[in-house]
Amino acid sequence: MPAAAEMLVEPPFERSPAPDDFQSAPDPQKHDHFIREAVDTIINEAVYKGTNRESRVVEWLSPDELSARLDLSLDRTGLSQEKLLSLVEQTIRYSVKPGHPYFVNQLFSSVDPYGLVGQWLGDALNPSVYTYEVAPVFTLMEETVLGEMRAVVGFPREGGDGIFCPGGSMANGYAISCARHYKAPHLKTQGMSGQRRMVVFTSEDAHYSIKKMAVLQGFGSDNVRLVKTDARGRMDARDLEAQVKDTLDQGALPIMVSATSGTTVLGAFDPLEEIYDVCAKYEMWMHVDAAWGGGALLSRRHRHLLKGIERADSVTWNPHKMLAAPQQCSTFLTRHASVLTDAHAANAAYLFQKDKFYDTSYDTGDKHLQCGRRADVLKFWFMWKAKGTDGLEAHIDKLFDNATYFKNMISERPGFELVLEQPECTNICFWYVPASLRSAEARSHPDYNHTLHKVAPKMKERMIQKGSLMVTYQPLRDLPNFFRLVLQNSSLDHKDMDYIIEELERLGSDL
Hints:
The chain is α/β, with parallel strands linked by helices and 511 residues long. The protein has helices spanning 28-48, 63-69, 81-94, 113-125, 136-153, 168-183, 187-190, 209-216, 237-249, 272-281, 339-344, 377-411, 440-444, 448-453, 455-466, 494-507, and strands at 103-104, 161-165, 198-203, 224-227, 253-260, 285-289, 314-317, 330-334, 416-418, 427-432, 470-476, 479-486.
């Protein structure tokens, strides 16, 4: 090893002169024009043009083409405000517009004006909602909204508990964590090693997050048992009980059932009252993943779809789905007042001091797994204040009306075949069968399903290239690829349903 005097010394690093505009604070003299121009561009291009039926849903470029078109590099020197404004325009131009009426591709869409303002207001204030000290308004706002949502579910408004989560997957993870703590609180300190094997049950059509979160929490994917579904995609309570008995015969401990109200593909609503009976009999936590279908609770016409949800121990409900709040806005609700805190609190003395000058029960952050956390409540609260419960109900009813109209129209239309004749939610699943595959001879060919399987991907490619529409597709078990229209944008009407049908016919006319 060389002596210290002989060791190589790196040449001094040459510093560039500090830019004039590096400080993280708005200056009216420096930034007023830039901020106003950027906001005007966002309003005109993303909000108005991006939701205009005459505009494209997406201006498609391949990854190589988009990389060449956009300057995504990061350099030592910053750009001028003029070039930054150009990047704002380009970002909007080449992004998918989920607020477009013909984006019916996933379980989120629309640009709600009140939700948007609420989101912007939250971003301008930039809070972190973990103590009343730093987020007094948002702490009280959360408790108000979560209490009202519990009341809508049928839980105690003033009792129970709830939190806002970064997505429905995390909310389902909280359900598994709470169920484990409720059944075996000693695991919080002792861990899973050497403990009796625990099993979670959900349907074969449930969201994949149940398995992912069980893996994350140490259960192992083999200990998530998938329950059979019926022809409508609903969990079979008889198969559930049979699997619970089998689990007990193996010496394992069944701790939780995650039912679904509004499955991702078929939009099925599990029979909650039958599932509750099984959970009560075997002392299991009952969770309902109503991330998608929970919005129906606000409609007197449609809340019957979730009959029995008030018996559950916990519920996932995402206002950013059927209620069209801006991303992300997800909640976990429970009837148990202390389980979230008991399961997750770490009592960090530097943040959750108990000798503060105010009531520290309002320091709600310790029941979360997160520390820093956005005020996701604000955009939904602002929407609810603007529209009232009656307005939210009218929104839900219009979605179901559009879904019924679309289903009825394609039921009578040559080339369209429903996967479910009577869908329960605003998911409409169907095949488009091109004219070349409609004859008896084509249908009887052994390669019929294989050929039909290729139709939806080809039509999806065409609609994306054209920018006229976005509808997703997928297979399900032994079924070939089919389209899944999902409706949660209440600005659509029956004319839009007609357009979607006619555009699908145009896209598949020569296949």
